[in-house]
Structure formats: C-alpha cells, structure tokens
Design brief:
This protein has 695 residues and is α+β, with helices and mostly antiparallel strands. It is built from 17 helices and 37 strands. An eight-stranded antiparallel beta sheet has the order 18-17-23-14-15-22-19-20. A seven-stranded mixed beta sheet has the order 2-3-1-4-5-11-6, sandwiched between helices. Strands 24, 25, 26, 27 and 28 form a five-stranded antiparallel beta sheet that branches. Strand 25 and strand 26 form a beta hairpin. It is globular. The termini are far apart. Mean pLDDT is 88; it is low at 44-55.
C-alpha cells in the first residue's frame, strides 16, 4: 500500500474508549453502537448477561465490566476501534492502560445522577494522558433523567468547557430526538429502537433555547481555530457554514479543552448521532504528528512520525489469557508495520521475539490478519516475555516509549491451596493472572512462608480467586484481608553513620557511609541525592549505597512495613583501597538508613478511602453513624433526585465487608463506591495495636 492511500485510511481510523462510573451505561451504549453499525443482530442486556463486551463468566453473573474489551466496527466509511472499560474502582487499571493507547474517549454519564465519584476518577485519568473526549448523557429518557441538570454537574465538577452539540427534544419518557445545533436540524424517532432517525424542522418551542446554545457553542469553538475565528470576526456568524463550524469544533475538541455534549438512550437509534460525533470530532492517529520515545542504550530522545514508512514502534498495553488460543498481547502500533511471522525487538527487555499470529478482536472473538499498520490496534497470539508497558520495535532501530504507571495495591490476603496437589497449579495460575493484571501482586511472607496476594480491593481479589477456580481448576483457601500499611518519618532532618568492617583472613570488607534523611510531604515519594565531595566514597560505589537504602526501606523500623516519602542524601564516608566493595557499601548504607530512621520519629501510615454513599433519606442517620464508627470523616452531603449523597474519607482498615454491611443497614436500597485517596498517619492508640501484632 502506498503512503498516500495508507494516510487516507488512517485519517478514517478512530481509536476510542468508552469510560464512565459503574452502571452509567458504558457497555449498553457500546452494545447499541455494535447493533447500529451492523456488528450485532440485537442489543444484549447487561443485567441478563447477554452483552457481547461482557464476555467473562464473572461479568455475565455480576452485570459489571471487569476487563476492558476491544472490538471493531465501521460507520460512514470510518473504521472505529472501541474499548469498553470497567467502571468499578477495583479495575481502574483497565481504564488507565486503555487511555494510554487511545486517541479519544466517550465519557458516559447517568442522566439520573450526573457526575459520580468514579466519573471524576476516569476524567482525571483522561486528563493525565491528554485524551480528547466527548460527553454522552445517557438514560435521560428514564424517570429522573435530566440532561440540563447533568450538564450543570459536569460544569460544576469537571469542566466549564462542556457545550451541548445536541439538544434533546422532550423530557424523561417523552424524549424523542435531538436538535443538531451545528446543522440546525432536528432528528426524531417514535420508539428508541426505530430503524432510523427522521429529519424534521426544529420545534418552535425550542428555537430560542437552541439558538442561544448554538451561539455559545460556536463562539467558544471558533476561539480555538485561527482560520475560522478570522472569518467569524470579519463576516459574522451567519456566513459560517456547517463545515466551518465542524472544523472549529474539531480543532477545539482536539485541543483537549473543549467537550461536545450529546444525550439520549444508549440502546436507541440516537446512538447514530453519537457515532457521527466520534467520526467528526475525535482524533485520527494522524492528528498526533510525532511519537516521542528514547533510545534504550543512550537514553537520547527518538522521534517517530506516524507513518508506515517508519521503523516499527508499538506498545503492549494489555495481556490476556484466551481459553482457545492462549496468551494474547494487545498492542497499539504507532509507526511502521507489524507483520505476522516477522521478528521484533522487545526494546524494554532487549529480547528478540518472533511474532506468530496476528488477530483483530471482536470482544472475545478473533479474526486472523496479516499485519497491523501504524495507528491501528490488534493482538499478537502467544508472544512470550512481553508484558503491559513493553515497547516492541524494529530490530535495528530500537525505541522505548513511555510506559504505564499503576497505583500500588492497598489490600492483601494470604492464600493457600486446598490440597497439596493444587500447590504447583496455584503457583502457575497466580503467575498467569499477575502477567495479565499489573495491579495484582504476589509475594511470600519471609516469616510465615505464606503466599500473599495484593490487589486494588476486596472485589478485585475475590474475582482473582474465582478465576483461579474456574479457569485453572485450583481451589484455594484465603485469609482475612490485610491493609498495606506504610511507614515514614516526621523529623525534618536527621543524620547517621553506617559502618561495615569485616576482617577474617585474606581480603576483608570495608564500607563507611554517612546519610542524611529528610521528611517529605505525603505522596512526594523517594528521592536520593549524591553530595559526596573530594572522593570520600568512589563514584562506582554510589549505586550500591542507593541499593542499600532501597533495601532497608522495604522493611521499616516501626512494624516492618515499607517506608515512603523520604529524601536520602549521602554526603560523607570513607573507603579502603583493598577491602572496599559494592557489597560492603550496600550493607553500610542499609545500617546507616536504619539508624537514621529510628532517630527521625518514624510513624505508621494507613490508606484512606474516598467513600461515596447514595442512600434514601430514611437511612441517612444510620449510614452516617456507621461511617463515624469506622473512624470516618464526613466531607459533604447533598441531595440528588430524592436521595442523599454522602462523601466521606474512611480508613481502609475499617472498610472490609462494607458493601454487605451497607445493604443490611439500608434494606439493600443504598449503594457505595470507593477509591484509595491517600495515606495518612495512624492514630497512636491504633498504631500501638498494629505494631504489637507485627511483632
């Protein structure tokens, strides 16, 4: 294929994620898109386990999305790759890694609730990766659905720069279409599942409101496009064609500071207007002109244009185990062409690897393809030793792309096989699951020799254990959930010496290190500085000093938990011409750190959960009392649609089993969402209890 025809093809490609709070209707909207683009003969109901994108058995049973699913469809001669992501906070890593490789996103809102807790989280994640997005306010045709109120909540909590591009016609159950504010046409339907939309005149009773919103939309859009702004200022609004306006809106949307808003029923024919927005306003891969990475050996910046003529540059963003073909490595190709049967370099590990089969995914179904070209998304079958965040590149022109950062898992449980025969199978199963999920960790407790698994929450670990049983036929017993405490220091600055001298005939060991420890603000992380002058410690031993510090930080001085948020400076020491070694300086640094940490007022930190509870007013007193009993702090209370929304911060340690407790407390009528907010100091009385248990 020539570069010109490829460019035309890539211009008509959209890599789009569907993101939202749990139960906003992401999967249903995706099902509606697949139905309207001819990929499905009917729309699968999520609550009945019929949704194509919820293909895992646990997803069908629970009616929630657990793993992001990729699929492909076509609309108006455009090729759209869609990734439907989970809404539950325990699976937020799926959103993170999807947004890293997507060009645009559709943010779905529950029209009855507006902006919810997890909506804010996914919005922040999209901001982090600078992903342009459009907003779709779903369920506005249901009782309590309100487009305008939801729009106000977007303005209040997410961005003032969200502008309706479609104005719904009707309210709640009477919603029957939209006014397109760009084309100045109305599109209506009799039933949401009609085969097609009917074009009609703009209803007279909505003309004034629609004109005002149209002026706002155009004024703010043209401000981002110099060419259209000049025409607007010189010739006026009436001289702008719908093509001009669409160009301005597209430019504004791609800037990441302008968000077109639509609304309707994600199951219905109105989804066609949402597809139009995806095609018209979300970016093509060619809108990102250059991909920037670094050379794996020299660390120099490498720039790759988005083109098939460039050396291969691709990022692995997800590993999945398919029951039929085995390991699948999902990739986004940024430059060049990946061909089946070719050899590539895993630039992250330095390994040469052979690419076997290539497939395009349709949720859990596959279609074999010969190549994946720049801009596209696909999967490699059976690629070994490549994991999430690894870069695949040309053998002779390597490049490493920025990887994907994931939060540390805050919840741990001990796990053991039910029988001796399951021991080996359990190790293999855990290893496979850890390869798939970068927020799932496995470790062994040195003292008890227990296997510890860590994840983002109770549901996350519950799903892991369930998958072991179903997919790997391993039955396991689990212990009580444990909190991932951390330790830090309070004293602003403290110094200590670490000296390691061993003489036992022949060559000895000598290392002498002076360290300064400084407390950092919570969440600031670890920092290491070398201030050695005059060669007091030779430069070649400084990495060993840093490694010794990091090793010592893994086991804190209060209760043995990892230490965080500390700046460590090595500023003095001494060495021996013959006896000094990397090992000696590593041990000396470890001793110095332990001594300094003991002098620096070490404290315990615990993860704090941001909790949002939606409850009928009748139970509000009981819910608040229960939160207070769990050492929680109420942050805010507000009314939404006849229910109370309570926002609070609560220690994770007191939140195990909360979902079931809340159901009991409210006769099953309340719901909650949680996410890890930050770490805070543990009250002294509780710290004493934790410390005594650790010992």
């Amino acid at each position: 294929m020539s570069q010109e025809s490829h460019l035309d093809q890539v211009n008509k490609l959209r890599n789009v994620g569907i993101i939202a709070h749990i139960d906003a209707g992401k999967t249903t909207t995706t099902e509606g898109i697949l139905y309207r683009t001819g990929k499905k003969h009917k729309i699968g109901a999520v609550h009945e386990g019929q949704a194509e994108m919820d293909w895992m058995q646990q997803e069908k049973e629970r009616g929630i999305t657990i793993t992001s699913a990729a699929t492909t469809c076509f609309w108006r001669d455009h090729h759209i790759n869609i990734i439907d992501t989970p809404g539950h906070i325990d699976f937020t890593a799926e959103v993170e890694r999807s947004l890293r490789v997507l060009d645009g996103a559709v943010v779905v809102f529950d029209g009855k609730m507006g902006v919810e807790a997890q909506t804010e989280t996914v919005w922040r994640q999209a901001n982090k990766y600078k992903v342009p997005r459009i907003c779709f306010i779903n369920k506005i045709n249901q009782t309590g659905g309100d487009f305008q109120r939801s729009l106000k909540s977007i303005h209040a909590q997410l961005s003032k720069k969200a502008y309706p591009i479609h104005l719904p016609i009707g309210f709640e159950q009477s919603v029957k279409g939209v006014i397109d504010l760009v084309d100045w046409k109305a599109y209506v339907y009799d039933n949401y599942d009609d085969k097609e939309l009917k074009e009609v005149e703009v209803p007279a009773d909505l003309v004034d409101q629609a004109q005002e919103l149209r002026h706002q939309l155009i004024e703010h859009a043209v401000a981002e496009d110099d060419e259209i702004l000049t025409k607007y200022l010189e010739e006026g609004l009436d001289k702008l064609t719908s093509t001009d306006i669409k160009q301005a809106i597209r430019t504004a949307t791609l800037s990441g500071e302008f968000y077109p808003v639509s609304g309707g029923d994600g199951r219905g024919v109105i989804v066609e207007k949402l597809l139009d927005l995806v095609v018209d306003f979300l970016p093509a891969p060619t809108d990102t002109v250059n991909i920037i990475g670094r050379h794996p050996k020299t660390a120099k910046e490498v720039i790759r244009p988005t083109s098939i003529d460039q050396p291969l540059t691709a990022l692995a963003f997800k590993i999945a185990t398919d029951p039929f073909v085995g390991k699948l490595c999902f990739i986004r190709v940024y430059a060049g062409v990946l061909k089946a049967g070719s050899y590539v370099l895993n630039a992250t590990t330095g390994d040469k690897q052979r690419v076997g089969r290539l497939v395009r995914m349709f949720a859990d179904k596959r279609e074999d393809i010969d190549m994946i070209e720049s801009g596209d998304i696909g999967a490699i079958v059976g690629l070994k030793d490549s994991f999430t965040g690894h870069t695949l590149s040309d053998l002779n022109q390597p490049i490493i792309l920025e990887s994907i950062d994931f939060a540390e898992p805050p919840v741990s449980i001990a796990i053991e096989p039910a029988t001796k025969a399951d021991q080996e199978k359990m190790s293999l199963a855990l290893q496979r699951l850890a390869e798939e999920d970068p927020t799932f960790r496995i470790s062994v407790d040195d003292e008890t020799n227990q296997t510890i698994i860590s994840g983002m929450g109770e549901l996350h670990l519950e799903i892991i254990v369930d998958r072991m049983k179903r997919e790997f036929k391993v039955v396991a017993n689990i212990g009580e959930p444990q909190v991932a405490y951390r330790e830090t220091i309070k004293k602003a600055e403290v110094t200590a010496q670490g000296k390691y001298i061993r003489q036992s005939g022949g060559r000895g060991q000598y290392g002498d290190v002076w360290l300064k420890l400084e407390a950092q603000s919570l969440g600031a992380g670890f920092e290491f500085e070398n201030r050695i002058k005059g060669g007091a410690i030779p430069q070649e031993y400084i990495p060993a000093v840093k490694n010794g510090v990091l090793e010592a930080m893994n086991r804190g001085v209060v209760a043995g938990y990892p230490m965080v948020d500390i700046k460590v400076t090595v500023y003095d020491g001494s060495y021996h011409d013959v006896d000094s070694s990397e090992l000696a300086f590593k041990i000396a640094a470890s001793i110095a750190f332990q001594e300094a940490a003991k002098l620096a007022e070490p404290i315990l930190l615990e993860p704090i959960i941001k909790l949002e509870v939606v409850t009928p007013e009748d139970f509000m007193g009981d819910v608040i009392g229960d939160i207070n009993a769990r050492r929680g702090r109420i942050e805010s209370m507000e009314d939404k649609l006849g229910v109370k929304v309570i926002m609070a911060f609560v220690p994770l340690a007191s939140m195990f089993g909360y979902t079931n407790d809340l159901r009991s407390l409210t006769q099953g009528r309340a719901s909650s969402t949680m996410e890890v907010h930050n770490y805070q100091e543990v009250p002294s009385s509780i710290a004493l209890e934790i410390t005594s248990k650790a010992r």
